Amino acid sequence: MKAHRAILIKLPRDKCDVDYVKRLMALANLAYRGYEVWVPDVPKRVQYQIYGFKNYMRSLVFGTTPKRWFVRTWVPLKVMRVYGDGSRRGATDALVVLDFKKNVIKLHQVCKNEPGFVVEVPMPKWVIERVKEGGDVRYAMIGLRNNEPYLALVAEREVEPYQSSGYILAIDVNSWRYGIAWGLIRNGKIVSFKQDGLNPQRIVSLYNQAVRRERKVGRLKRLGLGDEANAKRAGRMARRLRSRAYRLIRAEAVFLARKLTKKALRYKAMVVIDDVDWESLKELLIRKYGGRVGKLLLSGLKRFVKLLVTQLQWYGAPYEFRRLYSRKCPRCGHKLTQQRGRVMVCENCGFKAPRDIVPMYWVMK
Ligand SMILES: [Zn+2]
């Protein structure tokens, strides 16, 4: 089985002609739609690469990669790898060269439309780690995100999922208070259980602070004082708070995905992930935290699941998605009634468990 992981690397803006990259993206878009347009003012070398990827369009480069920035207009590029011992892999006409001797990435003629124009960026640790794990970076893409130029690298690794040792790592994404709960199960017993991550109260508080400042900016604007230092400061602060909330969620998703992947590998566990009903979770979060924060929390949870699956695949951990309910009896399927202290009871068969643990019983079923 082939597993993939991807990374985005920001390119130096002063060395990249954004309009040129836009042009290349437009050509890549045409290639994706099946057209082949040769333009006189873009190097042939670059155009050959774009159309050379046509046959892969349904595969890795244009489609099913794990991260969502891979919209179809990113420009696919071949990659040459020069390893420490001097050996080389990849096409000789590659426009992206990973040089592990000098620890740099060289980009030829894709950042600026000038003959022989090369941009060098330092080799990220991420690439070195993936290569150490037996991966190979065979594809790259260049494109814009929020109008900033980026290089995307895709690592590929041949991996067979391991045989589970009998442990099951159950991951419940729909946990009410924390976002994520996980349990380690063996021989029908819960060995350990924990609720983790995504502290909604912190996000809510950051968001409310941002909103308060935005209101202040609005008030000052209405009074014709929008240009005052006061208003500008409040506006800056609001943006800063907002992006801090966003970063916090993102960092949490990354941290938890890594932590749970490591746990799965340590126990050689089979991983069962809650097959979340995203629509109803969205409603739930919006009802509880309001539209903006609810959506932000939802995006964090979605990102977590995506990252988790990508990493489980990469390290060969077997996994499956299963619907894990917390209000439905795992023994008989009857609706559960909630009693005091968040204890759930089945009036049909007598099943009883704390609400947050119920999903774990669905895994043992
Ligand atoms: Zn029951």
How would you characterize this protein structure?
The protein is of the alpha+beta class and 365 residues long. It has nine helices and 16 strands. Strand 9 (167-175) and strand 10 form a beta hairpin. Helix 5 packs antiparallel against helix 6 (229-267) and helix 6 packs parallel to helix 8 (291-315). The radius of gyration is 25 Å and the shape is globular. The two termini are 29 Å apart.
Strand and helix layout:
Elements: E1 2-10, H1 18-32, H2 44-52, H3 60-64, E2 75-82, E3 88-89, E4 96-99, E5 104-108, E6 118-122, H4 125-132, E7 136-145, E8 148-158, E9 167-175, E10 179-186, E11 189-196, H5 200-222, H6 229-267, E12 270-274, H7 278-289, H8 291-315, E13 319-322, E14 336-339, E15 343-346, E16 352-354, H9 358-364
Parallel strand pairs: 2-4, 9-12, 12-13
Antiparallel strand pairs: 1-8, 2-3, 2-7, 4-5, 5-6, 7-8, 9-10, 10-11, 14-15, 15-16
The site of zinc ion has 8 residues, from loops.
DSSP strand count = 16
Q: Helices and strands, in N-to-C order? A: EHHHEEEEEHEEEEEHHEHHEEEEH
Number of helices: 9
**What helical percentage do the residues reach?**
25-40%
Report low-confidence residues grouped into runs of 5 or more. 60-71
Terminal CA distance reads 29 Å
β-strand amount: 25-35%
SS class: alpha+beta
| Largest sheet entry | 8 strands, mixed
What would the average pLDDT be, to the nearest integer? 88
What does the radius of gyration come to?
25 Å
Shape: globular
What small molecules does this complex bind?
zinc ion
